[in-house]
Every structure is written in C-alpha cells, then in structure tokens.
Please model this.
Amino acid sequence: MWTLPNQITLFRIILIPIFLIIFYLPLSWSHFGAFAIFWLAAVSDILDGYLARKLNQSSAFGAFIDPVADKLMVVAALVMIVHDYQTWLVAIPAIIMIAREVFISALREFMSSRGKRDVIAVSNMGKYKTAAQMLGIMGLIWRPDYDIPLVYFYFPHVILNYASYAFYFIATILTISTLIDYFKAAWPELKANT
Model:
C-alpha cells in the first residue's frame, strides 16, 4: 500500500491546505505561490501514474486514492477561484465541472456494481478535458496582473489571462461533451430493469 506512487498521491492531498493557505496570505506573491503549488500537484499526478506503471506498483488503494486526490485539489481550486473572481463567467463553468465530477463518480460506482466499469473508462477526450482544465485553473489562480512583474517583459500578462480563460472555457465544453459521451455509454445499463 505504501508504494512510492501512493506516497506521491498522499503528498498531493497534503498540498491542498498548504495551497489554500498560501493563496489567502496577504503577500504580493500569494497568487503565484498558489499557482506553483497547483502546478506541483498536477506534475505529481502525472508522475505517480508513470511510476505506478514503470515500477509495476499499481494497487487497489492507488486506483482508489489517485482520483480522490485529483478531485479534491480541483474542487478546492474551483471554489477558490469562484470566490476570488466573483463573476458568473468563472462560477458557471466551475459548477458544471464540479457537477460533472460528482455525476461521473456516481456513474462509475454504479457501472462497477454491474461489473461494467470499463464501459466508461477514461477516454482521450477526458484526458484533453483534464489538460485544458488544469491549464485554465492554473492561469486563473495566478492572475499574473497581480504579481511577478518580471513576466511582463517576457510574456504580456494580458495574453496569459486570455489564454487562461480560453483553456477554462475549452475545458467546460469538453466537460459537457465527455459527460454526454459517458452517459450514452452507460445508458443501456441505466435503463435496464434489473
């Protein structure tokens, strides 16, 4: 159970309160600091999956805790940016993304109970959704117009802000699209009589 990939996953969960505390600190670099921690969590997610396959250390506990860690970090970040921006342009996509995670988790549990979890396994579109979501959330956390003035010389903060919103809205579209795809795949089981 305490394999290296699982330890990295648990480390990601430990990062969540640190991420939130740093974001709300009254410091000029708090947004960038929170962005850096979220980036570290995203990289650790890639790393633990890679190591589990490379070291042949996949486990039932890892299969359970990895998506939990991902969802906890993403939901914490979405709630945080909704509070920070206080605009429907951020809030509505966040509600859609959180609702999708709850729905898909319940759907996967249901399909597992029917012995057909593979029917709604993670698709390539789901991976694209996750990538766009992470990039969008990271940019919205950072808000480079707030701090780190050195970035202005290399890459104008306005471009970063527009890119963040673009990835966030692409993620929202893919969130809805993949939700529909998973629902269609599970529909034969959902409408079954037994």
